[in-house]
Amino acid sequence: FIALGDKDSSKGQELLLKYQLAAKEAHESLTDEIKDKLAKVEAKSKSKTEQIASLVRMIFTQKRERVVFSKEERDTIYDKVMASVEFTDEEKKRYQECRDFCEEYRKRKAIKKLLDSQKKQKGHGRNPIPEDMPRLEEKVLWPEGNIGHEDEYVIVYQGKVQEFIVPAKVRYFVQPYRRPVVRRKDNPMQKLLQSPCYEDVFWKSYASAELLAQLECNKYVPHQPDSIGESVPL
Predict the structure, then answer these.
(1) Which superkingdom (predicted)?
(2) How many other β-carbons are positioned within 10 Å of the β-carbon of residue 196?
């Protein structure tokens, strides 16, 4: 203790250096131990979360196991692989090309899946309209504010053609309707406008889900004020 208290002596300097080294080693050891315990707790918690998610998926959805990684998770895995293996510059370049190829393949696969799902849509409503039924010339339904002021609006989306079976004297014909989405040219931030669905006489069994929802909503909405907070005079 006398030597340690005397910092100027060689013995005191030696003991002080040993003490500093021992304290540093103890601090590093304790830090590593805490990190290991935290990592174990995190891994255990993650394992429990994955088990719960797997159980929920098996009970309420599909029973087969399927692991889907997000782009961030895939990038993390790729980076870990890169860090665990010593690649040459040429190998790193080829590895990056493989990653880019895989990402491009996933994008193309997602686009193909979306296009296939659109092709599989059957009919225009709950029942498909017979292909051999005569069809009339397509009519366009413009929103109310656009009529007579066509030069002031720009078409944002041409609209999907919807077909309805309408009476024409004795026979029935298929009347296509299209409802473009427009906005004013001088105010790009204005809300988009679109005509409501066709609501004249036609076979209800061929009504689209959008029209049925509109009819149901109109039972309650038209008598309501434009703003919920607006007071209605008695």
Answers:
(1) Bacteria
(2) 13
